[in-house]
Structure formats: structure tokens, C-alpha cells
Design a protein that fits this description.
Helices cover 40% and strands 23% of the residues. It is an alpha/beta fold. The strands form two sheets. The chain has a seven-stranded mixed sheet with strand order 5-4-6-7-8-10-11, with helices on both faces. Strands 1-2-3-9 form a four-stranded parallel sheet. The longest helix has 14 residues, at 120-133.
Length: 247
């Protein structure tokens, strides 16, 4: 049985602990930053699974908002089958995800070129070198869920302008990027995310501590697709959860 507890603006750790004991709660699913802070005040009396945050392996267990790379690459294969190489710039925080992405890329017949950077300045420099090297539609850039290497104000405009001019694919783990011009982006399927979190709560924490989000919807930019010469069947389009520009 699932029981819910709405946190007040200023969570009361004692009140929360009393409620958990009174309700006989065996494990806790904590959502969002406020949920994480409240859960950290509970100690180690029961398992805590974190969700709805871009968490990385470390001191917590749960489901990260960072999308499962295998799902991204499956969409890439379906929408842009001519792409064979994917470039991704990331910070150290996302190294755990890049390891999963390398395995997923091989399984989907893709070559993954990865570049770790330290800060925004370093990221801009790295992207400029990558953009100079890209020659055509067989290459793509993946923008991960990373506030440095997928920065909305600095990185995204540079990458999208180059992609439009050179006609290569950009896809993203950040939901708004499809609306701004990426071929596609993914966004959490909240019902599916809840199911994934519940499964972890029932079966015990993920062996790696944190797992990427598998339950994802897809947003596709048809204007970008048309510019790239990509055409989708009616059956494919039925599976798009969001379409830009809006019909």
C-alpha cells in the first residue's frame, strides 16, 4: 500500500518521523529537493529512495532524472538511422552515465566520442573544436542533462546554429531543447517514473545506488526534421508525445 505525505514549506523532521512510525511505513520514496532534505533528516531507520532529481551515485539511492542512454539511442536509430557517431561533452558528475552510454552505444551500432570538461569556458572551447570537425549527417551531438555542457544560454545557441548550417542532428536529455530546435528531446513520463521508483522500493535499492530514468516521453521538432531531410511515417508520428512547432 502506498501512503503519501505532503511536505510543508518548512519540513518538521519529528512530525514526519512520527507519521512514518504511526503509519507503519517500511520504505520512503522522497521526491524533489525538498523531499531529499527531509529524507536526509530521517537517519538510517528505513530505506530511502530518491526521485525527481538529477542525482548521481554517491550517498543516496534512487532513480535519477538523467535519461537512460539506451532509450535515447533507440530513438536516434529510429528517427535518424544514418547517424553512426555521437559526440557528447560532459562533466565529471555525469561520468557514471557516460559509462552506461558507451555500452548502450555499442549495442545500437553507434560510435560514442566523449569529452570531459571542468567548466563552461572549457565546454565552449571543446564544442567549437567538435563543431569544426563535424562533416555531415552521419554525426550527431547529444546534449546530456548537465547544466554546464548543455547550458541553455551559452552552449545551446552555439550548437543549434552550427547544426542548422551543417545539417547534422542534435538530440537532448533536456525537455525544452526540442522546442528550441533540437531534433528531439526526452522528458519524464511521470506515471512510469512512479512505477520505476515503486519497483525499487519493493525490490531494494539498485545495485549501483542510482539508476537512470527509463520511462520517458519524446518531443520531436518537425521543422528541424524537414530541414535535415528526415521524413517520418504516420505510425512513427503517432508515437511522438510532443511535436514542435505546435500543430
Amino acid at each position: 500500500m502506498v501512503k503519501t505525505y505532503a511536505l510543508p514549506e518548512t519540513p518538521d523532521a519529528r512530525a514526519l518521523e512520527f507519521w512514518l512510525q504511526n503509519e507503519g511505513v517500511d520504505s520512503v520514496i522522497a521526491l524533489g529537493r525538498q523531499g531529499l532534505m527531509a529524507a536526509q533528516s530521517l537517519g538510517d531507520k528505513r530505506p530511502v529512495i530518491i526521485g525527481a532529481l538529477p542525482i548521481a551515485p554517491g550517498s543516496v539511492s534512487g532513480i535519477s532524472l538523467s535519461p537512460e542512454p539506451a532509450v535515447l539511442f533507440r530513438h536516434l536509430n529510429e528517427l535518424a538511422p544514418n547517424v553512426s557517431r555521437v559526440h557528447v561533452v560532459h562533466t565529471e558528475r555525469n561520468q557514471w552515465l557516460i559509462k552506461k552510454a558507451e555500452t548502450a552505444a555499442r549495442a545500437h551500432g553507434l560510435t560514442l566520442s566523449t569529452y570531459q570538461v571542468n567548466d563552461l569556458r572549457d565546454a565552449v572551447h571543446k564544442y567549437r573544436k567538435i563543431l569544426q570537425s563535424i562533416r555531415g549527417p552521419a554525426e550527431a551531438i547529444w546534449l546530456p542533462l548537465d547544466n554546464v555542457t548543455a547550458d541553455d544560454d551559452v552552449i545551446l545557441p552555439i550548437v543549434l546554429q552550427a547544426a542548422w548550417e551543417k545539417e547534422f542532428v542534435v538530440f537532448s536529455s533536456k525537455p525544452p531543447h526540442a522546442q528550441r530546435g533540437a531534433l528531439f528531446s526526452v522528458l519524464p513520463n511521470h506515471f512510469g517514473m512512479g512505477q520505476q521508483l515503486a519497483k525499487v522500493a519493493l525490490n531494494g535499492p539498485h545495485p549501483a545506488g542510482v539508476a537512470p530514468l527509463e520511462n520517458l516521453d519524446i518531443a520531436v521538432n518537425l521543422r528541424t526534421a524537414f530541414h535535415l531531410g528526415l521524413r517520418f511515417t504516420p505510425r512513427q508520428q503517432e508515437n511522438f508525445d510532443l511535436v514542435f512547432p505546435s500543430r
